[in-house]
Amino acid sequence: MITEIKKIYSTDFSVHHIILTDSFSNIPKSQLSEKESVYINKLDVEDEVKSVHFNNFEQQKFIISVPKKDKDFLTDEAFRKAGSSLKFQSLSIEEITIYDFTSSNGSLFFAEGMILGNYKFDKYKGKDKQKPLTHIFIYCDNLREKDVELMNISNQATFKCRDLSNEPQSVIDSVSIAKVFKEMCDETGITIEIFNKKKIESLKFGGILAVNKGSINEPTFSVMKWKPENAINKKPYIFVGKGVVFDTGGLNVKTGNSMLDMKIDMAGAAAVATAMWAISKAKLPVYAIALVPATDNRSNGNAYAPGDIIKMHNGKTVEIINTDAEGRMILADALSYASKFEPELVIDLATLTGSAVRAIGKYASAAMKNESCQHYDLLSKSGENVYERLVEFPMWDEYGDSIKSDFADIKNLGDSDAGLISAAKFLEHFVSFPWIHLDIAGSSILSSKYDYSTKGASGVGTRLLFDFVKKLTENKLD
Ligand code: BES
Ligand code: ZN
Ligand code: ZN
User: In terms of domains, do 114 and 185 share one?
Assistant: First the structure.
């Protein structure tokens, strides 16, 4: 169940409502009772979020002030955070109206924070007695119906991404993930081709086949294509997602509890597929393709092993140093396959390295790009817009030295230093087009809730790619 936002054009203050502002002094006197005015005027609101709750039973009333920040994207984020911290869950509120007295459209971001922060992956738990919040109505002059529609799509897509990523490996395996993609594609008119093992063999995807050797499930490779007639681009934007449905490490088995979160090792795949769903649901006029190689990484009698030398889709050979560095093996084949579409740009999203987690934690994704990429600033701007920030790391040649191999063209693991960069240097060997690599290992998996990102899969990447494609089409939206 996901809360829907609706724009309304008339006021009714007898219902549950939120009066939202960037300064209490902007609230028209008529909206407050004498007592409320006196109380609110006593609060110092200079640069702090202030929230007051009047419990009038059938008319719950919140008055919230979120001061402006010096950049618009920071103000938007402050509204999201304020929305996610609203305590409405125990009040049995099914519908609530936001009256927006901000100088912008803070209500939209406030509602986004409320909705995303209220996400729960609870389908396997006993029934909750609380009534769900079905609607947030917004009364706001500075809000376009179109923005509301796009926000609803963005929220739905983010929920889909989190749901898919949070499912355990016993439910989402390499075959069932492709079925979920097919259902999403059929709903919005994306064409999808799902390659089975035979087709993957015929395409010589050696990296995917190597990682899959220890699995009882066959690998899949999904190609999702959204090509509307009014597309503004001839060459496609391609999104590639790491679809390791469970990462045990393989023969280099993960120890302790480090395997626990590895059902989320397909968060990149979930992000690209749900972003495609959003793009197509919104009918954005952009030719876009998503590629997802999917397998689990396990050990059995046939599993790939350290010392193996693997011939990849583009003909290069890779010496396996560690079977736990499997993500780059499957992504490499997907990236070299992408060249057949002559892409405008390829962006890959992958829960690739523990090194990225150690470098920047959960607050950003690690970004790396090649020389020919022209779109990095636009993507980084989208990262600010949706507050899924990017931090760029260098791709200097020296970082490629540690993956040179004595026995093959390259090896799948370099030094322990700067592992997130040597992983990107590995991928670069399979890229022949403008390219951005996003290591989302830190940003996609959360050990606890913070703000409107919930424990488990954060859903990072969906909103980022959706905003990026929206911005590409900005002039064409009205
Ligand atoms: N899926 C992991 C990376 C990961 C770690 C994602 C933590 C999310 C949270 C990846 O396949 C992996 O196992 N990487 C290892 C490689 C190892 C051989 C050095 C890593 O980076 O620790
Ligand atoms: Zn691994
Ligand atoms: Zn992995």
Answer: no
